[in-house]
Amino acid sequence: MFIMQKKIMVIEDDPKVKAYLISLFEDNGYTVCSAGDVPEALDMVRAERPDLITLDLELPGEWGPRFYRKMSQDKDVKNTPVIVISGMSGNEYAVGKAVASITKPFDREHLLRIVKENIG
Amino acid sequence: MICRIIIVDSDQSHAEALAAYLERLDYIIAIATSTDRLQTLLTEHLPDIVIVDAGLLGSSRSKWFREMKHRYPLIWTIVLAPPDAMDQLMADLIGDAFGFIAKPVKSLALDHTLYQARQAIKLQRQLSQSQQELQELRNTPKPYRQLFREMPCYLTVQDQQLRITASNRLFKEHFGDEIGCKCYTIYKHRDSPCPECPVEKTFKDGKAHQTEEVVTSKTGAQYNILTWTAPIRDQSGQITQVIEMATDITQIRKLQDHLTSLGLMLGSISHGVKGMLTALDGAVYQLESGMERKDMPRVAAAVGETREMVDRIRKMILQILYYAKSRELNYETKALTDLADEIMAVGRPLAEKYGVTLKLSLTPDLGTIEIDPHWLPAALINLVENAIHACDDNHGQGPKEVEIRFRPDGDQGILIEVRDSGKGIDKETREKMFTLFFSRKGPQGTGLGLFIVDHVITLHRGSIRVDSAPGKGTCFAIRLPRRRPPTAKSCPVSGKLTDETI
Fold first, then answer.
1. From the candidates B268, B273, B274, B284, which should be mutated to test the interface with A, based on the most A CB atoms within 10 A?
2. Which residues pair with B415 in a beta bridge?
3. Distance (Å) from the C-alpha of residue B290 to the closest C-alpha of chain A?
4. pTM score of the predicted model
5. How far is A112 from chain B (nearest CA, A)?
6. Candidates 3.30.450.20, 2.40.440.10, 3.90.226.10, 3.40.50.1370; correct CATH number of B147-248?
7. Does domain A7-119 have CATH number 3.40.50.2300?
8. Nearest CA in chain A to B271
9. pLDDT digit string (tens) for B404-455?
10. CA distances from A119 to A26, A52, A94, A115, B152 (A)
């Protein structure tokens, strides 16, 4: 039986962390796309329609919460679940509607569990 | 007004009668019955008035009066004489005696003459006091000039073109006493006014302005200074010049630097540390998953990543430790060729990554050097990394080349040069570059590197010099003694920033 792979979009500016998240998700059977800043991420979320997004808060130029606000104004993608992954403490308040907020460095099993709970 | 009188009369009893009369009028009287006695009394009694019987002086009276007037110009003389001798006497003594009283002396004549004499004396005293005050007034700018000269800060007066028209002693001592030079040339070795010049602002709005600067003295010493400006106006209220007071706050800054550095550094790098740890997690994950899948290219890449992250984390932690922990130099004797190899081993991969040619040139038989085998190579590697980054900043313009040279410096020293073909550094940057938190690299730099380099080399009793100009590349020249200085042999260097740093 053909099962459609779920798609995760990684928004992260540190190339090493981005590569890590991509491998981690791909190795666990997800399709992954990624963006390094807010404009790129906005274009991509509309084009790729991911099932879940991981969002870094500190991005060059515009910050992560700005991405979330703009995404929320687009009815086609506004219900996409977002997991905030950031080095900032207190980041659970930055994006109130995020399904989870985890801090770097994170426990990868914990992250995968949250992903699975949300999109299977 | 107290008035002292000497009565000169050969007739003692006549003199005493006069004295009795005058003492009742509150005069202080002395009597001389001869001119010899008068000479003594003139210095003992210090009279304001001398009343003299002309008969005592005989034919030499003109000469006597002229002499009196010459030697005691402030003493008023009154002559007593019989009425028949009076005319001749007045003719002889005109201008030399103050008053003439006929004998026998009438009280009214005496009172009148003495009253006039006292008025004259009073006027004369007022005049001399005024004269003295006038003289003092003339001298008053002197204390102010001295105050200006001796103020324990750098004082300069500048005109609209920022030319120094006056400066105080301390300024002259540290920055030279060239009058008419531009402020920014002397203080900062710049070719144009500093941005946000407080003197220009004061010329514009007449208010006091403040800035903090790093300036370089004529001997090359650096000072953190706090400057305040104030306008100098002429009588019409126009601002003609501006006075600038600069206080040396180097010591305070050093302390503050040290105190704030820890907190600030930990705060500012915590985000970076978290990123690095996450990336390290990533590398470990790639390593594990690569091994599970027997995916050797993945494993190989992961090993490289792991090494890079460990290096970066180690470097950062060492910088923190340099501040957080008390440190001492642990001297070891090292072959200079080994030192060079160590630096090349770290520099080469980085140079390859950025496409920079890294050259090493050693003179033969370099011998050994006593250094801290941890801190000194770290400082040199920092310089080499900077040099490679500087070439990378070139954006493909010109050759990308870094050369490290080791050669003897006299009998007792070693000269190490790190030369790059980067875009060079202007003089102001050169002067600021060893201060804490000064970084040209923006978010990539902590501003710690060169500060620590300078500190490490100073601890080794060495020196570091920068030679550079925009477009001409940069050369750092480090001079180090081959043998550790005697003071450093046994006593550990305190963890605090010592006076001799920067």
1. B274
2. B407, B479
3. 10
4. 0.41
5. 13
6. 3.30.450.20
7. yes
8. A87
9. 999 999 888 999 999 998 888 777 777 767 665 555 544 344 455 677 788 8
10. 15, 7, 23, 6, 73
